[in-house]
Design goal:
About 55% of the residues lie in helices and about 15% in strands. It is rod-shaped, with a radius of gyration of 49 Å. The relative contact order is 0.08.
């Protein structure tokens, strides 16, 4: 009986030892699995690295944008001309129109016009209304030729049917000043009212008196 008890105790010890060994093995296995799962933080680290690189790419693109914007500002718009040293002839053309007999300047509807007596013979438009420089004149003789220009068109409000033509010039365009003067004179002659005999005689007398006065002053200066 004592021998059997001793055998049972020994068997119980072996069983307990086996259970302890199996528990240790299971702990090691769990530890190994946990260790195997540790690469996950590496992914997090790589994600963090990419997150750090992302701002670098954004900052690079942000720096590139102002350069493109600056290039766009420097580049001239398509179809435009460089206006280096260009002088707007509007003031000179208005002065020429006012040098014609009985011509005067008026500003109806906010635009600049030149009149002879009470009739307009040249419209110079509002500021920028006819391009950098433009005019509207009555051309009973040369309207067809002028309308062949790319920058010319019949005047609106039905005036085109009566020979009124609008010509526009942009900044930098080559303005044919002699032609413009000729258009102004033609329009003046077409619009200027005919003088009555009394008005004509008075005008001739005034011109003769003016001429005589100038000659007398010239002789006085020579002495």
């Amino acid at each position: 009986m004592a021998k059997k008890k001793a055998q049972r105790k020994a068997a119980a010890k072996r069983t307990a030892a086996k259970k302890g060994a199996s528990k240790k093995a299971s702990k090691k296995t769990a530890t190994g699995k946990a260790a195997a799962k540790k690469p996950a933080p590496k992914k997090a680290a790589s994600t963090g690295a990419s997150a750090k690189r992302a701002p670098t790419r954004k900052s690079a693109s942000t720096k590139a944008r102002p350069k493109k914007a600056a290039a766009a500002r420097k580049a001239p718009a398509r179809g435009t001309k460089r206006a280096k040293g260009w002088v707007n002839p509007k003031a000179d053309m208005i002065a020429f129109a006012l040098s014609l007999p009985d011509a005067w300047e008026d500003h109806p509807w906010g635009e600049t016009v030149t009149k002879v007596r009470k009739k307009v013979f040249a419209f110079f438009g509002v500021e920028g209304g006819l391009g950098a420089f433009g005019l509207c004149v009555k051309l009973p003789e040369s309207a067809d030729d002028v309308l062949e220009l790319e920058n010319a068109e019949p005047a609106g409000y039905g005036l085109g049917k009566s020979g009124w033509v609008v010509v526009r010039f942009q900044e930098g365009d080559d303005v044919p000043l002699e032609d413009v003067r000729g258009w102004i004179v033609e329009s003046y002659r077409a619009v200027a009212p005919k003088l009555t005999d009394t008005e004509r005689k008075k005008k001739e007398a005034d011109e003769a008196a003016k001429k005589a006065k100038e000659e007398a002053q010239k002789k006085a200066d020579e002495k």
